[in-house]
Design brief:
The protein is of the alpha/beta class. It folds into three domains: 13-57, no CATH class; 71-168 and 303-327, 3-Layer(aba) Sandwich (Rossmann fold); 170-299, Rossmann fold (3-Layer(aba) Sandwich), CATH 3.40.50. It has helices at 13-20, 24-32, 40-53, 59-66, 87-98, 112-124, 170-183, 199-214, 231-236, 238-243, 254-266, 284-287, 301-312, and strands at residues 71-76, 102-107, 130-140, 151-158, 165-168, 189-194, 224-227, 248-251, 276-278, 296-297, 325-327, 331-332. Strand 6, helix 8 (199-214) and strand 7 (224-227) form a beta-alpha-beta unit.
């Protein structure tokens, strides 16, 4: 006897067959659109029964018949729990939906066992392909399970370049951050870079140097200071920046810029009147709420996710031999830059 509150039994293909007065195999052919010769009357009875009973075809059964899937997988190490990097999921989800796909997301928190299980689950669901993403830009060793699926790396890359990858253009971002300061007339620009080896460290330094070169300015290594990539690192570098008589500073990230703000204020000085500052990342919880609001360069997380799906579906094809597909990091000018004083 059915009790109140019991979960309703799912309508099966057999229920549809009984209601339509046809065989289960006939229902299967209609549901999966196999091309089998089914009479118009029988086909219509099946469709009417499906609608009246509320039958929902089993996605896995349809995948087995058609040999394909309307699912895409996304395996991430931690981006679902990092607010600004979670935009990767948002971008991938929007693009997948636009092309009739549903995104299956697994957040593994860097646990290798959870990662292997997530990939295995996605393979069982016969996903069309898998996006593999990390919350910061770095090289990765590919999990073995990814060899069984079309894969695109997002915000990371493989050292052998065997798998397509979509990454932020760190060099162009560093160039544009420096150019924002140059455009206001600054010529003595310090760069607080991270001590941590990474594509961001190398790329942003390269962009800084290229911007100086394009402005006809020599690169001065004494203006580059390696710091801890956090608020404490920016604060600790203030005296060194002031001693080198820099009028502006490009900071490796917004957290370093926040520490620099604190140090400048503690010395009775002001941003941007005494020192113009540009950050990187556009962490809005920091950049938009500093006073004055911080000019910065955004990491294009939404676009990384979106372009990753496009590469996976063959809609964007990276040029052969050019390495990962690099996505622009847009400048976000706010109020932390002004022209240098004449003194």
């Amino acid at each position: 006897m059915k009790n109140e509150g019991d979960t309703p039994r799912a309508v099966t293909m057999r229920d549809v067959a009984q209601a339509a007065g046809v065989s289960v195999s006939t229902v299967s052919h209609v549901v999966n659109n196999t091309g089998a010769r089914i009479g118009r009357d029988a086909r219509e009875r099946v469709r009417r029964a499906i609608e009246e009973l509320g039958y929902r075809p089993n996605a896995m059964a349809k995948n087995l018949v058609k040999g394909g899937s309307r699912f895409l997988g996304l395996v991430a190490d931690a981006i679902a729990s990092t607010p600004f990097a979670g935009q990767i999921i948002h971008g991938a989800q929007d693009e997948a939906w636009q092309h009739g796909y549903v995104l299956l997301v697994a957040n593994t928190e860097g646990n290798e066992e959870a990662e292997a299980s997530a990939i295995s689950m996605m393979l069982e669901h016969k996903v069309r392909g898998i996006l593999y993403s990390t919350w910061y830009h770095r090289a990765v060793d590919l999990p073995a399970g990814l060899a069984e699926a079309d894969t695109v790396l997002v915000n990371c890359y493989s050292t052998n370049g065997a798998v397509p990858a979509v990454v932020p253009d760190e060099s162009a971002g560093g160039h544009d951050a420096t150019r924002m300061l140059l455009a206001e007339g600054h010529r003595r620009i310090a760069f607080l870079n991270t001590r941590t080896p990474s594509p961001a460290r190398d790329g942003r330094l390269d962009g800084y140097r290229r911007a100086l070169d394009a402005a006809g300015l020599p690169f001065d290594p004494d203006l580059v200071v390696d710091v801890q990539p956090d608020q404490g690192g920016g604060y600790a570098a203030v005296d060194q920046v002031l001693a080198m008589r820099a009028t502006a500073v490009f900071c490796h990230n917004d957290r370093v810029a926040m520490g620099l703000y604190d140090g400048v204020r503690d010395r009775g000085l002001r941003v941007p009147d005494d020192l113009s500052v540009v950050g990187f990342d556009n962490q809005e919880v920091i950049a938009a709420h500093l006073r004055p609001a911080l000019s910065t360069v955004a990491l294009p997380h939404y676009e990384l996710g979106r372009r990753g799906v496009r590469v996976l579906l063959g809609l964007d094809v990276p040029e052969a031999g050019t390495g990962p597909l690099a996505v622009d990091c847009p400048s976000v000018p706010r109020h932390s830059i002004t022209r240098p004083s004449e003194s």
